[in-house]
Design brief:
about 400 residues, alpha/beta, 5-stranded mixed β-sheet, 3-stranded antiparallel β-sheet, about 40% helix, about 15% strand, globular, binds pyridoxal-5'-phosphate
């Protein structure tokens, strides 16, 4: 209600800028309409055709923007991230040996930056440890390579550090978040997550020359540098969200609600990604529907069945989301074939979680009836958003 809607120089922008400085610790920022807006700007500013961008597992929109600028993503996450049953406490960690190999093969001058996501969405909302951030930064310093953060869920990441990493139990979420960010040159942000808003994002950095380029780009694609596609009230809400998101009790409650759902499902024998991450419970569709081939889209099929059963809208994170290799045109076949049950912050009660669990458990009881799908329309980019499917015919068992 207190948003300032002035076209240029709105007070709400300066409040947001001050909140980013105070809470994330970056000197400069430009707002964007959401996370992919910030990814677009960063990719245009830093990526040249033929360059390589290492990251701790791909994220759909992040990789799409890297590829649109002619870059190639290289996965440097530890192997445990690809194993849904590994109980590693920091499955989002960067594998320094893999990173070093990419640096040596591609040569440092062809690596504009390394992108580290806190937490790793597609691995199951898995965190990165502070020790790993420190070590990754130290390695990159040797080669003069920048390190950028996808900070979409950095607050949830801070919670896991506080809970699991020696030496951090006595530190506040606010302090841990600042320490996480201190290792980076800047960040992209989808504020719809940690920052508790309906829409919004930003690109933040310490380097003034990157700020200048971001201001040049933001006016072409998003809006004036003091609103970046957002209404004043959205910026005001984002600034307020930043104050509330670092409340220790709130973030503990948020992660525990996700865990509450995960514990119910695991207790009923449902195959899920372990340990349960910060924002979602991920069903392991390979083990849920072992009778389906990956090219029959088991995770997409399971998400559709869940929607029909209970109206719960989940998200495929498997072969459909992974898309095609732009060089060969062939489908990626990721080892993780998952359905993501993402829980919005401060929306549901635990009783809603009970309804979700009941529906998943129902489906598991009749899992053998669930058929695969065929894709009837495939868009050229980010196909999971707009693709259409139809069920495959029932397989008839032949008696001999
Ligand atoms: C880790 C991560 N990065 C980037 C994005 C893209 O952000 P947006 O959806 O706001 O464009 C998302 C969205 O889900 C995300 O989870």
């Amino acid at each position: 209600m207190t948003g300032d809607e002035a076209y240029a120089g709105a007070r709400s922008f300066y409040r947001l800028e001050a909140a980013v400085r105070e809470i994330y610790g970056f000197r400069y920022m430009v707002p964007t309409h959401q996370g992919r807006g910030a990814e677009h700007l960063l990719s245009r500013i830093l990526i040249r055709p033929g360059t390589v961008i290492p990251g701790n597992m791909y994220f759909t929109t992040t990789r799409a923007h890297q590829e649109l600028q002619g870059g190639t993503f290289a996965d440097v996450v530890i192997d445990e991230a690809h194993d849904p049953q590994s109980l590693h406490p920091f499955k989002g960690n960067v594998d320094l040996v893999k990173l070093l190999t990419v640096i040596e093969q591609a040569r440092p001058k062809n690596i504009p930056y390394v992108c580290v996501a806190l937490t790793v969405n597609l691995a199951g909302g898995q965190p990165v440890s502070m020790a790993n951030l420190r070590d990754t930064r130290a390695l990159l310093n040797e080669y003069g390579i920048a390190m950028w953060c996808d900070a979409t869920r950095a607050v949830e990441n801070a919670f896991f550090i506080q809970e699991r990493e020696p030496g951090y139990a006595g530190k506040s979420i606010r302090e841990i978040l600042r320490e996480e960010m201190s290792h980076f040159d800047g960040c992209t942000m989808s504020a719809k997550k940690d920052c508790l808003v309906n829409i919004g994002g930003f690109l933040a950095m310490n380097d003034e020359s990157i700020l200048q380029k971001a201001r040049e780009q933001v006016v072409i694609f998003e809006g004036m540098p003091t609103y970046g596609g957002l209404a004043g009230r959205d910026m005001e809400a984002m600034a307020q969200g930043m104050v509330e998101m670092v409340d220790d009790a709130y973030i503990a409650h948020r992660v525990h609600q996700v865990r509450y759902l995960g514990t119910q499902l695991a207790g009923a024998g449902i195959p899920i990604v372990q340990p349960v991450g910060g924002h979602a419970v991920f069903l392991d569709a390979r083990r849920f529907l072992p009778h389906l081939d990956q090219d029959e889209y088991p995770a997409q099929s399971l998400a559709a069945e869940l929607y029909v059963d209970s109206g719960v809208r989940a998200m495929e994170r498997g072969v459909v989301s992974s898309g095609r290799d732009p060089a060969t045109g062939l489908n990626h076949h990721p080892s993780l074939e998952l359905v993501r049950l993402t829980i919005p912050r401060r929306v549901y009660t635990d009783r809603h979680m009970d309804v979700v669990a009941e529906s998943v458990i129902n489906l598991f009881a009749r899992r053998e009836e669930i058929r695969g799908l065929r894709m009837t329309y495939e868009p050229p980019a980010l196909r999971f958003f707009n693709a259409r499917f139809e069920p495959l015919p029932v397989r008839v068992k032949v008696r001999r």
